Amino acid sequence: MRKAIFLSFLPLLFLLQSYATSTSGRNDEISGTHCTVPGKSINSAANNKILTEFNVRITLVDIYGAPVTGGTGLRGYWAKNVATGVYYYPGGQEDEDKFDNLPAGTYTFGAYPGNWEGAVSSTVTLSSDAVGPDGYIVVTLTYWVE
Description:
- This is Carboxypeptidase regulatory-like domain-containing protein.
- Residues 1-20 form the signal peptide.
- Keywords: Signal.
- By secondary structure, the protein is α+β, with helices and mostly antiparallel strands.
- It has a domain at 54-145: Sandwich (Immunoglobulin-like), CATH 2.60.40.
- It is 20% helix and 37% strand.
- It contains one helix and nine strands; from the N terminus they run αβββββββββ.
- Strands 1, 2, 5, 7 and 9 form a five-stranded mixed β-sheet that branches. Strands 4-3-6-8 form a four-stranded antiparallel β-sheet, with no helix packed on it.
- The longest helix has 29 residues, at 2-30.
- The radius of gyration is 24 Å and the shape is elongated.
- The N and C termini lie far apart (85 Å).
């Protein structure tokens, strides 16, 4: 009977030991790091500087400033960090116009053209002042058709 009780508590002891080991090893790594919240500062203890990440949504307007509704022949969007030259691409197919967690900086946003259409690229500096109530910075590109 004692053997059965001991063996039934043995997995629990292993679980507690592994949890205690994993959390004690992580405390040094995460002690100065906070969760990522769009448009909020992240304190990184590793390099001791403040980083900020932003969410960006692309909208299209025609040459008269009216919103473009319906489908377009554009093949997707891109963002290029002006300072580093690094390109970023939006999420999956359902979020093809949204860039999540872009590091702070100045970006040129553009679209891959279709056969007879395209969009004028736009350079924007990401700042917390531009974050809308939905947590996104809206970048407007002018859509054109030949």
